[in-house]
Amino acid sequence: QIGAGVGLPGVVAAKCGAEVTLSDSEELPRCLRHCRWSCRMNGLPRLPVVGLTWGRASPALLALAPVDIILGSDVFFDPKDFEDILTTVYFLLEKNPHAQFWTTYQVRSADWSIEALLCKWKLKNTHIPLESFGADKEHLASSSLPGRHTIEMMIISLARSDGT
Fold first, then answer.
1. What per-residue confidence (pLDDT) applies to 68?
2. Higher pLDDT, 111 or 163
3. Phi, psi dihedrals of residue 63, rounded to the nearest 5°
4. 1-11 average pLDDT score
5. What is the mean pLDDT of the chain?
6. Domains of the chain
7. Which GO BP terms apply (predicted)?
8. 67: phi then psi, degrees, rounded to nearest 5
9. Interatomic CA distance for residues 159 and 94, integer angstroms
10. How confident is the model at residue 140, as a pLDDT?
């Protein structure tokens, strides 16, 4: 899981039997400590937690084991990070061409779109309707903030050479 924060989605995946590596910024040691604490409190003291900074090739990024799914929960929060996130995701998908990046995205503004970046990095986006798994309830997928702030789920993967 990238951008793990305290690691809830990754901890749940590990509890369900998945092999998980949690990560957050190497520049946020306190966040990494909280993530490790969350793992211990959930009976997963040996779950790997690594420091990875989006957009930066580091020894930790290069040493990651093969992955099938990259999980990102609300990582597209600050537009200044969008390209760095997709750079890191692209690197991981190139290293693991069969893998997919499963993520959520809260639509906060039309100016905050990732569509152009997906094209730039030759990534494709498959929209997953929230109703397909019962998460389209107003209390789950909306916000009381003014404007459109709905949650979207998507799976991002490498685009084929024909762009699809």
1. 95
2. 111
3. -90, 0
4. 84
5. 86
6. 8-158 (3.40.50.150)
7. methylation
8. -130, 155
9. 11
10. 60
Helix (H, G, I), strand (E, B) or coil at 14: helix
DSSP 132: G
Task: Name the token pair of 66.
Answer: 């093969």
Q: Which two tokens stand for residue 11?
A: 């901890």
- Bridge partners (DSSP) listed for residue 102: 71, 155
Residue 86 has pLDDT above 70, yes or no: yes
Question: ∠ CA 63-34-85 to the nearest 5 degrees?
Answer: 50
Within 16-129, where are the H helices? 29-41, 59-62, 82-95, 115-120
Task: Identify whether the C-beta of residue 60 lies closer than 8 Å to the C-beta of residue 26.
Answer: yes
For the chain, the residue count is 164
Q: Contact at 8 Å (CB) between 101 and 155?
A: yes
When pLDDT is averaged across residues 34-40 and rounded to a whole number, the result is: 95
Retrieve residue 144's tokens: 């009381």
* pTM: predicted TM-score of the whole model, two decimal places: 0.86
